[in-house]
Amino acid sequence: MKLKPQLQALVSAALKILVAEDLLPEIDLPEINIDRTRQKEHGDFSCNIAMLLVKHARCTSRDLANMIVDRLPASGIVNKVELAGPGFINFFLTDEPLYQVVRDVISEGSEFGRTDIGAGQKVIVEFVSANPTGPLHVGHG
């Protein structure tokens, strides 16, 4: 279960509603970046889309973020959404995504985490002995 694409889909749905309500013009939307927060009190993930779109809106980035939050579809993975600063949208997740990972581990057993990406291809793994007193550079190879 990939969380970032799910959160991107929620934000995208809210933006489509804002366009339909003529609160945002129909434009090519920038990529919706969902990032992990650095501090737990800011939630699990954060989005800055309101600050990227403010030049197209007829309001402040914080007001735009508030309109986005008000139009987010309900989701079983989002517990709470808060605004921060000039227009960051902070997502606090439920425990459901964690429970889903545990269910996946149990159901897949020893196959959990296995992949066939690169199957049959040879790879070279090199060891680099780095000098701990200086920066690493290509000459260390």
Name of the CATH first level of the domain at 3-93: Alpha Beta
E-strand count:
4
CATH superfamily of the domain at 3-93: Arginyl tRNA synthetase N-terminal domain
The topology string of helices and strands comes to HEEHHEEH
State the CATH architecture of the domain at 3-93. Answer: 2-Layer Sandwich
Range of strand content: 5-15%
Report how far the terminal alpha carbons are from each other. Answer: 37 Å
Biggest sheet features: 4 strands, antiparallel
What percent of the residues sit in helical stretches (DSSP H or I)?
A: 25-40%
* Alpha-beta classification: alpha+beta
Contiguous runs where pLDDT drops below 50 for at least 5 residues? none
Instruction: Provide the residue-averaged pLDDT.
Output: 89
Q: What's the quick description here?
A:
The chain is of the alpha+beta class and 141 residues long. The protein contains four helices and four strands; from the N terminus they run αββααββα.
